[in-house]
Design a protein that fits this description.
By secondary structure, the chain is α/β, with parallel strands linked by helices. It has one domain. 48% of the residues lie in helices and 14% in strands. It is built from six helices and five strands; from the N terminus they run E-H-E-H-E-H-H-H-E-H-E. A five-stranded parallel sheet has the order 3-2-4-1-5, with helices on both faces. Strand 2, helix 2 and strand 3 form a beta-alpha-beta unit.
């Protein structure tokens, strides 16, 4: 049996039902929230409500805070400084907490179809692409941006 695909998605511009429908249609069984701060002004995307709604649809919710972008990286991304965000995030990913969270994510994505979640709509401007690429390099799994 081939390894499951690693999905990624951002909720910018989405509503919760649409996002969860997209995950269910793709076959995702785990939602890996990789936001450093799992709160949102967008209705339905704060940790508790998102977790409850995902679980109600049979999608397991896991928050891996250590895979989130540190505040200086988020600030760089908001300012449009993608290279600076990537540099900050790369340094963060070298830390022990980030490596432990990456190992946990690796175990999850290898065992079930999982989707990495963050805010940014375009994965090319988001740290979830970097995390997905790290996971793919370690597991050989394909990545699909939903």
């Amino acid at each position: 049996m081939p390894a499951p695909v690693i999905f990624t998605t951002g909720y910018e511009g989405a509503v919760q039902d649409e996002l969860l429908d997209r995950l269910a249609s793709a076959g995702a069984r785990v939602l890996l929230d990789i936001r450093a701060v799992p709160q949102s002004r967008k209705p339905g995307f704060s940790k508790r409500l998102l977790a409850a709604s995902a679980e109600a649809r049979g999608i397991r919710y896991v928050h891996l805070q250590a895979l989130g972008t540190p505040k200086p990286g988020r600030e760089a991304a908001r300012a449009g400084h993608a290279a600076e965000m990537e540099r900050i995030f790369a340094a963060h990913m070298a830390t022990e907490p980030a490596q432990a969270a990456l190992a946990a994510a690796r175990d999850i994505v290898a065992s079930a179809p999982a989707c990495l979640l963050c805010f940014e709509r375009d994965p090319h401007f988001c740290h979830r692409r970097i995390v997905a690429d790290m996971l793919s390099a370690a597991t050989g799994q394909a990545v699909e941006h939903l």
